[in-house]
């Protein structure tokens, strides 16, 4: 009944939240003489904090309306080009200048781990000037009726394969964090079947390929609990009147609680500073609002996918042990021969420890040396691997270069093995 109580509490707070929002506008209105006084700003700040801490954050928008290609600013149109019950494939269609050579086609597989695909807005934005970008937009499981069936790890791998088939020849795939395992599995399944539409390159970023290496707090929690414990304590049924009523899920608010508890002091300080900036009328509160509007927007995961991921990736370490199965058949990373492999890690990653993603280089034994590269970005944590200034400056250009070098439609120059500014292996 925990999920039902959570929903009941949210509904009960609705009138108080609405009243607080109205009063905040009144105290912040420039026509109100109190709005520019310490008392008025304190009241407005307190009411905003109450409203923000009691609301449900909806799915954010990407909001990427334009990008720069060369020296020209062009418009970007977001469109759904492929759809299934649990995922839409979004295309960021650019109004490319006439006469420009085709850019590489990249499929970004976003994490299905609680946050929406918009968490990778910065990733998409950084790559748009140089590539034709598609991204998986996973659907909140609580919004999918039970009549649509289940969604598990095998289905995830199948979705990736279907999307690669849809996009066609010479598509490159990027997996950010959690999807590193199913994306590698999809590539192995396609290669073993001699599928001509297997990706040209595969970039794995901050992913849990082998969580036995440098285990983090997340990895240790999984090792300390049994799968039955996770089933008994974190799996709940979607309450009425949501479209997915009675679907067993891992609720997004539980995942968010886990994320925030890892750095609780940092979040408390951030909210305290936000409140003080509002009272003093200084600083840049929009940055705080934008970050937490994104960070606090979460989605539910289907119970079967969540439990299988915990079991296979974090408890049994099935992929690095050669025991991962897909549709009853063993997944063989050694079958990957034609897919170039780039692995990217963050030096201070506290979710996927250093070495966990690089393990893909070890288990994919038959990828030629000139088609593989590993990059360790200094001074970044987990989110810095795919977002932020260092990603834009250091990581994104390397991804684009790697993708271009391993396009199957061009002659490939040799890949540089020593990179200044970072660490390679």
Description:
- With 425 residues, the chain is an alpha/beta fold.
- It has two domains: 1-54; 66-406, Alpha/Beta hydrolase fold, catalytic domain (Rossmann fold), CATH 3.40.50.1820.
- Helix content is 40%, strand content 17%.
- The protein is built from 13 helices and 15 strands.
- The chain has helices spanning 2-28, 38-54, 121-127, 153-167, 180-192, 217-224, 227-234, 252-262, 264-280, 285-295, 303-315, 359-363, 389-405; strands spanning 66-69, 72-84, 87-94, 105-109, 132-138, 171-176, 201-205, 236-237, 248-250, 301-302, 325-326, 329-330, 340-346, 372-377, 423-424.
- Strands 1-2-3-5-4-6-7-13-14-15 form a ten-stranded mixed sheet, sandwiched between helices.
- Strand 2 and strand 3 (87-94) form a beta hairpin.
- Helix 2 (38-54) runs antiparallel to helix 9 (264-280), helix 3 crosses helix 13 and helix 4 (153-167) crosses helix 5.
- The longest helix is centred in the N-terminal third of the chain and has 27 residues, at 2-28.
- The model is unreliable at 411-421 (pLDDT under 50).
Short characterization:
With 425 residues, the protein is α/β, with parallel strands linked by helices. It contains 13 helices and 15 strands. Strand 1 and strand 2 form a beta hairpin.
Key terms:
Rossmann fold; 10-stranded mixed sheet; 17% strand; alpha/beta; 2 domains; 3-stranded antiparallel sheet; 425 residues; globular
Fold topology:
Elements: H1 2-28, H2 38-54, E1 66-69, E2 72-84, E3 87-94, E4 105-109, H3 121-127, E5 132-138, H4 153-167, E6 171-176, H5 180-192, E7 201-205, H6 217-224, H7 227-234, E8 236-237, E9 248-250, H8 252-262, H9 264-280, H10 285-295, E10 301-302, H11 303-315, E11 325-326, E12 329-330, E13 340-346, H12 359-363, E14 372-377, H13 389-405, E15 423-424
Parallel strand pairs: 4-5, 4-6, 6-7, 7-13, 13-14
Antiparallel strand pairs: 1-2, 2-3, 3-5, 8-9, 9-10, 11-12, 14-15
Helix pairs in contact: 1-2, 2-9, 3-13, 4-5
